[in-house]
Amino acid sequence: DGGITQSPKYLFRKEGQNVTLSCEQNLNHDAMYWYRQDPGQGLRLIYYSQIVNDFQKGDIAEGYSVSREKKESFPLTVTSAQKNPTAFYLCASKPTAGGGTGELFFGEGSRLTVL
Amino acid sequence: AQSVAQPEDQVNVAEGNPLTVKCTYSVSGNPYLFWYVQYPNRGLQFFLKYITGDNLVKGSYGFEAEFNKSQTSFHLKKPSALVSDSALYFCAVRLPLSGSARQLTFGSGTQLTVLP
To answer: Which of B43, B102, B109 has the CB atom closest to A90's CB atom?
Structure first.
């Protein structure tokens, strides 16, 4: 079945450690996105990529990094510079980056807790 | 700048009663409007969208949403609520000519609880 796979589903981290969240899609979508979800704040865009080897900062990119070496994969690294990393992280994709009427397809999310 | 407001953090309704989850938006131009639903500890699922044409959009499980341009609203409705409708609902807006999802703006979400 086609879809987006995020791993791990739950992750615990000590302060000062970097962690990488995986996002893989087999939908052949060009565009991929990372969102952060906090209670009562909706979704905030961290990074997005419209094509392989290209990505742009979203609204809250500080303390995060990404790569897009393959079309299928868009991993997110939460670095020790991120001041408040405990959150639910959602990866999404879309067939094409530009225009269109298409909706986003989301993964099941990764919940990161900093101890 | 565009924005989406979901004025109610929480909506409680008795099973069998009609439900409304409100969404208003602010954007220059004619927007695309979306509803997404999220169940606990899960990702968001696309629910329905308005692109153009008939202002009343019908979705799954008896839900519908009405686009009202004069009131800049896109409220989600269902005539008879079920306990299984309980979830977190997000409204989102995007301008048609925007080039990427950076231009997709989400509301803060409304937790719908249907009481048996």
So the answer is: B43
Tokens standing for residue A50: 């419209």
Six-digit token string for B60: 């799954």
Beta carbons of A104 and B104 less than 8 Å apart: yes
DSSP calls for B74-88? EEEEESS--GGG-EE
SS3 A96: coil
Is the pLDDT at A25 greater than 90, yes or no?
Answer: yes
Cα separation, B46 vs B106, whole angstroms = 13
Beta carbons of B62 and B18 less than 8 angstroms apart? no
B62 phi/psi in degrees, rounded to 5: 85, 5
Distance CA A60, CA A48 (A): 11
- pLDDT tens-digit profile of B49-76? 998 888 999 998 999 999 999 999 999 9
Q: Which of residues 62-91 of B touch A (CB under 8 A)?
A: 90
Cβ-defined contact of B106 to A50 (cutoff 8 Å): no
**What whole-number distance in Å separates Cα of residue A90 and Cα of residue A44?**
10
Tell me: pLDDT of B98 over 60.
no
For the stretch A45-100, pLDDT in tens is: 999 998 999 999 998 999 999 999 999 999 999 998 888 999 999 999 988 766 56
- β pairing state of B105-106 and B87-94: antiparallel
Q: Which residue of A has its CA nearest to B6?
A: A42
Contact A74, B11 (CB under 8 A): no
